[in-house]
Amino acid sequence: MDPVISRLSLESFESLPPHARRCIFWEVDPTTAAASSSAGCGPEIGAYESEFDKEAWISAALLEWGACGQIATDRGTGVVVGTAFYAPPGRVPRSRLFPTSPVSADAILLTAISTEPGYEEVAVPLLDAVVTDLVRRGVRAIESFGMVRSSGLPTASDFDVDAGIPGSRPLPDISAWSDEEIVNVAREILDYPQADLCTQCMIDAAFLKDSGFDVVASHPRFPRFRLELDEGLGWKSEVEGALEKLVVMAAIDLAGRERTFAPIGRRQGPTG
């Protein structure tokens, strides 16, 4: 699939998939989210939803900071099949509450990359679009909290580079744990009461690792990752963008020349 990737805008907000449009797991302080929530993010997790608060957060971010999301659209149907959200950590209240917090001051936090069923492959171009956008804006690094989960992914030991965590028990292999089991553990280790965890809004640790992110704060379940953004990439993206424009301009010019010099055909005079 070759999706159309574009920046999130207020005009495209209504076209977002329901969960991406409503979930405020990252965007609203959990102590205040409960008051404005209308429903949970899922039957097994109790995180909060509020379409009003999500739209308000996006609106404020766009106005005061700039683009805070990328969307992937199916070319054939025009349906949004994937989203990515990112912002300065100061705009993400939940970012302060993980055992591997805080996010570095020079980094932008990638909070979530979500795809609709059957469109998992659009996660890669969504991440590429985030990186390209932030490089052009002069951002030094991207950080993200990963979640170790799902059968077949690397186990916790792959992300726990520190030998042990004070006060923790020996960790079993959690590669096959269900989301519900992870949520129950999260409620024990996160730093606020009623610690609800929206697993749909957490990025797989394996995906971040495979995408070139490095672990900068280890944890058996919620490692924090970092991707350095080379300044040279900004120069490269600018050149690529300029070349794309030149190609388009050349194609337009060529089409115009072909129309100008196309044979018109001879006018036939009177016969006889």
Automatic annotation (TrEMBL):
It comes from the Bacteria. This is GNAT family N-acetyltransferase. It comes from Gordonia desulfuricans.
